[in-house]
Design goal:
The complex is a heterodimer of chains A (81) and B (143).
Chain A: H1 2-23, H2 27-47, H3 51-79
Chain B: H1 8-30, H2 39-57, H3 67-90, H4 107-138
Helix pairs in contact in B: 1-2, 2-4, 3-4
The chains are: A mainly alpha (81), B mainly alpha (143).
Chain lengths: 81, 143
Amino acid sequence: MLGIFLLVFLLFLMMTTGISALFARDLLASIIMFSAFSFLAVLTSLTLGSPDVAFTEAVIGVVSTTFFVVALERMKRGSSK
Amino acid sequence: MNERFGTVVLDTAFRFVIPFVMLYGVYVLINGESSPGGGFQAGALLAIAVVLSRLVQGEKAVFNISGNTALILAGIGTFLYGFVGVLTLCWGGNFLEYGISPWAMLAAEKHALGILGIEIGVTLCVMATIIAIFDALTRKEEV
């Protein structure tokens, strides 16, 4: 029973962070929200009992967040000229 | 990303973190059969160590793999995967049929050894590809 409540809570948080990542004005805020979404997906996978998927999601969340931040930095540098 | 970033605190902290990240990556690779993990996760962890070094110390990082070297490493990793598969073909089995190898071992040991071989290939390929993407993102454009 507690597991169901935890799962519903995590899915609700995932929905909130996903929608706010879509509609955020600032791109950096969008990236951070996407990172939070990825971390909540890790917790959801752990709740559903698949640590392998959770591990992959955690690692890929870190890598993709780094790539997004680097790409955003490069984009800003190009637009400032 | 191309120039040095941060102060001595960040530099020292990242020097402490890097060895543990790399050791954990190798542990995930070796222990991947009996616990969560495997070649892909190990490669991503090892790549994170290099990317973190590049982020903090810039292009003159102490622990660095350049983009061209990364592409060569990715080729070597893919070759290793294919080599293990073709080796079992040469011994008379199917592609990636590890049980056919002529060494005097148990069947489970042969399987573990063969899977370790292809996982090392996958690790090299994933690590080098992530570093190559990062290098392409941070490269200075030619004028």
